[in-house]
Give the backbone structure.
Amino acid sequence: MNTRPYCGIIITVALLMPAFQLTVTQADEPKPTAETRRADIPHTLEVAGRKRFYIVHVPENYNPATPTPVVLALHGAAMNGTMMVGFTGLNETSEKHGFLAVYPSGTGTASFLTWNAGGFAGAFADNRPDDVAFIRSLLDDLAKKYNIDQKRVFACGMSNGGMMCYRLAAELSDRIAAVAPVAGTIAINELKPARPVPVIHFHGLKDRIVPYIFDKEKTPSFMRFKGVEDSVMTWVRLNGCSEMTRQETISKPESDMKVTRRVYSGGKNGSEVVLIVVEEGGHTWPGQRQTGLGFIGKSTVDVSANDLMWEFFQKHPMK
């Protein structure tokens, strides 16, 4: 049996078609839901003639007189900023550590919001918005409304949002201190960051939507993205880190989902690259139970992506 067309369809559907039923259109402003706190504040701005949206979670201990760190949380394909709140549980981490959690929304139709993170060729790449320009404008707008620490602006993202994290690291390194892609790999060809950008990457070995190993033969010709090892080692070289690594198991001994951490250190300006691998993990956010979404695979609750990425971010302000 020839499985190549079948696998191509699976990947295409997973990345391009809705995985969730959204309740907003591109022209509507996302509204905080029952899952969000009253401190989740929606904002709008116009970029290149297009109305764009983002939500800011303001922790209770926010002090307008004190520069405050920012964590951008970029949703996956077929999600929006509001949905990313519940998917990641990042508001709780914001409350614990006192950073602004910011949830931007991509563009598209009511059932298909994405980021222009690269990865497409031909007609699929035409007329896509400049989302790097959007994030730059968002940060400018955010600084007018809140007292943000410009040296501690970070980005994390899920799937297509994780791919967008890599694009921001490559093209907006003057504003983004460090990034944390989750289940998303490098999807652009041009990688020329102006400074070393530390990266902590999370991925499940059983991810069937953005596979750990990129298989060119099983992927549609109009779609291109790197595998996990290729993405990580590309960034190791860009940061000038040692290719000698240290590895440790960070899950509990009794856990049924082994999680390992691989660290590449010694990079320029103290940068490093960290890879967190969930051996039985799917297309999920470590530390969060994704119920009712069996097709995306298993999620570990033994290790928290939110806690690990914040620990990493604390070590790597802009230098």
About this structure: The chain has a mean pLDDT of 86. Residues 131-145 form the longest helix (15 residues).
